Amino acid sequence: MTAPLLEVTDLRTHFFTRAGVARAVDGVSFSLAPGEILGLVGESGSGKSVTGFSLIGLVDPPGRIAGGSIRFAGQELVGLPEDRMRAIRGKRIAMVFQDPQATLNPVLTIGTQMALALQAHGRVSDRAAAERAGAMLTRVGIPEAATRLNNYPHEFSGGMRQRVAIAMALLNGPELIVADEPTTALDVSIQAQILAEMKSIARDSGTALIWISHDLATVSSLADRVLVMYAGRIVESGPVGAVLRAPLHPYTRGLLDSLPAMAKPGQRLAQIPGSAPSLLALPTGCPFAPRCAHADAACATPPPRVDRPGRHALCHHPLDAAA
């Protein structure tokens, strides 16, 4: 059996504010195999992006990793000195952010930025860097790549800028890419193209991918497994097909029912009642209980772990048992 590339155990990332401690990530555990695509889904504020930032050591004060373990290729990343983390970040673990304009420097050409990203991790000539950068732009579907290296970010469309950001993430041949909602601002046709390209890249190169999204429909067409997060915790995990066909947790069911494709023409879209709780004042017991139609007195206590073959959920009333 192949050893996991990434093992996250009881990860806790907290933000220490004047109003109190916000437990953005509260006891998250999962593993990732080489070449596997993992979907991480949930509403805004569920902790999924903070989980991604924690993996590459980009949590800014007042946030910090308060406990747990992140082992990458057998090496512990929690507590790793910044100079050693910098050698891993961008080379072995790369990240694609939601907004490419926050990634790309507006006053440098694309070719210059890609060359700097390569030369930060090794001795590479300008000519070799340009050839590598052009090859990566071609790989993500940017035509006339050699010419476009001389362009600035504002000369690209939003979809093309995101492709450039993905190409930069691929430059150093990373073993793991963390993609934080990189297609949210793009139209549906461009989303589909980028999803297909990312899936092809993971399959062809053996690169593992963590795809962070609020959209279960997107994850269903890309991921092998899915983790559903709520209030800083993983409330359900399993193979993406099994989870979407028969979710165990009422929150996962609610996310599925709220997809526009689930509504009939002329029918109002379903929604999960209420709103996500404040991470500064989580309810006792199950954090989803105030919004859950299945909640009862038992939900005032911490939910038990419910195991099924290859999957699990945290719930007093898993949906398959209720059925």
From TrEMBL:
Protein name per its UniProtKB record: ABC transporter ATP-binding protein
The family this protein is said to belong to: Belongs to the ABC transporter superfamily.
A Pfam cross-reference name: oligo_HPY
Phylogenetic lineage: Bacteria, Pseudomonadati, Pseudomonadota, Alphaproteobacteria, Acetobacterales
CDD domains according to UniProt: ABC_NikE_OppD_transporters
Domain ABC transporter: 6-256
Membrane topology, as annotated: Peripheral membrane protein
Organism this protein belongs to: Roseomonas fluvialis
UniProt subcellular location: Cell inner membrane
